[in-house]
Amino acid sequence: MAPRPRELTPDRSARHLFGSEMRRHRELAGMSLESLATVVRYAKSSLARYETADAMIPPDLPGRLDAAFGTDGLFEKLYGLAKYEIHPDKYRRRMELEARARVIDQYAGQLVPGLVQTEDYARALFRVTNPRANSEAIEEKVAARMGRQALLAATPGPDLSVILDEAVVRRPVGGSAVMRSQLARLCALVDTPTTTVQLLPFGHGEHALLGGGTLTLMTLDDKSSVVYEEGLTSGTLVEEPEAVRTRRRDYDLMRAYALSPRDTAARIRSAMEELP
Prior knowledge:
Blueprint: H1 14-28, H2 33-40, H3 44-51, H4 61-69, H5 74-82, H6 89-100, E1 101-108, H7 119-129, H8 135-148, E2 159-165, H9 166-170, H10 176-189, E3 195-200, E4 214-220, E5 225-230, E6 235-238, H11 241-257, H12 261-274
């Protein structure tokens, strides 16, 4: 006798509603989890967890479900709400502003910023910062981080400028293969119509943001600007105009001292060649 399907609770959250609608449309289409897994190219066990809201929805699944069920963007819309739920309240405001940003300028002193991380790089970071977490918890965080990156492919998407301290590309994260893939991703973003990546070389010496984590300046759709400063375990949203102007000045000075995109690409390729 087949086990009774777990009861769904779509009124609890957008994530639960996503799972409920996924099961409803699957059953309306007369599809089993096995047959849906074949269509959307996901494991049956993973789809079962998404239906019951036991795992965070990966960013490419909603579009595949809409194509499979002919639901005209329903699952994309539900995912637009559900993707915020894994993040604590203090980060949701930041993500809402990030989604409104027309220009994003970032500085990172230690790690590749989340918006341009590869899955494996993000996974390595989550594992080392929380070694007791199980694999499902890690994968949920990775899926949430990859979901944030969807805004870069939006229409219209923001213009993204990233300045990295040279330490970011010299410190291997996750091993040589993971780091090489991450550096290749950065090289691909160095100089495109919507992205720029520059390195602040070791030779520059001290600067105003030395020792900090990640600084993100966002110019929003209403022309206002906000700053998000992220440390090891906390983040601070800054909206006071004078403080925003000060951070803008710090960032502009670093951009003046940073390598050009062409020289940045050469320096990143050098770092790739030095990996064992």
